[in-house]
Design brief:
The chain is mostly helical and about 290 residues long. The chain contains 13 helices and no strands. Helix 2 packs across helix 10 and helix 10 packs antiparallel against helix 11.
Length: about 290
């Protein structure tokens, strides 16, 4: 069950990242984050009311609040790092956040077998290579590296925090709702500050009509991200966190494959090799 839900997480995160990347070509990244999360809040709010999940409120929800505070900071740091580039270095470094939940799992006493340790090592190398790291070319700015590492730590911290935010399915709905409300509060404040400084929330010459036309895609991104957090939490609660974290972090492979299928982007040799290693690491983890 852990492997199944973790792989589902990778697919959902990979598709959400792909959709978010396409949307940021039309509207600012911060607007994508805020609007997509607002849609998620509305849907999750209805689910929480319908299931009575609000009755399971307790101290564990502070983990969800923490995930909600860290998530937008990580995402915005990542987008800023991508803008500074080069993307071929920034993108795979961002996936190193898997180290955080893996370390948390080891500190909590998990002891994967030798085959699983090998699978973790092979999969992490594959994940990095699947991003197509640029080993030559333009130098990387120090600020880009720092922002990427902040983002990676943030992504990993969200994975570790959300796994501790609930112990039941209905409790998970409530935890995800709290996380998303916090996301919207933090992201909305940042968007308001940005507009006050003269940076528009939408491209010049456009208006709400553009946002309305993109609403289905924004909803998909927000709900896929929510679903991914949910499947990851289930995976981490029903098996080794180390396995759940590594398998869930295969999402760069999914994003690269989606770009290949939809945008006809050719996979570089290093990306194809990384995808192969990631899948090999998956098999070793599952077999262990």
């Amino acid at each position: 069950m852990t492997a199944l839900f973790a792989l589902a997480t990778a697919v959902l995160w990979g598709l959400a990242d792909f959709g978010g990347g396409l949307l940021t070509r039309r509207i600012p990244a911060l607007t994508v984050v805020v609007v997509s999360q607002v849609v998620a809040v509305v849907v999750l709010g209805a689910v929480v009311l319908g299931t009575g999940a609000w009755r399971e409120a307790g101290p564990q929800l502070w983990f969800a609040v923490g995930a909600g505070l860290v998530g937008p900071v990580a995402m915005l740091s990542f987008y800023k790092a991508l803008a500074l580039g080069p993307m071929g270095v920034v993108s795979p470094l961002g996936s190193l956040g898997v180290v955080v939940p893996v370390t948390a799992g080891l500190m909590l006493g998990e002891r994967p077998g030798l085959g699983q340790f090998a699978g973790i090592a092979v999969a992490v190398v594959g994940i990095v290579l699947a991003g197509g790291p640029e080993l030559r070319g333009a130098p990387v700015q120090r600020q880009a590296v720092v922002l990427t590492l902040v983002a990676a730590f943030g992504f990993g911290a969200v994975m570790a925090l959300i796994a501790e935010a609930s112990s039941t399915v209905t409790g998970l709905f409530l935890a995800l709702f709290v996380q998303r409300v916090t996301n919207v509060a933090v992201g909305g404040a940042a968007l308001w500050t940005q507009t006050r400084r003269g940076l528009p929330a939408l491209p010049a010459g456009t208006g709400p009509k553009l946002l309305w036309g993109l609403l289905p895609a924004l909803a998909f991104v927000g709900l896929a991200d929510v679903a991914a957090n949910g499947t990851y939490s289930i995976a981490a609660q029903n098996g080794p966190v180390t396995m759940a974290a590594v398998l869930s972090s295969l999402y760069p492979v999914i994003t690269a494959l989606a770009a290949f299928a939809v945008l006809k982007e050719r996979l570089r040799t290093v990306q194809a090799a990384g995808a192969g290693l990631a899948l090999a690491g998956t098999v070793l983890l599952a077999a262990g």
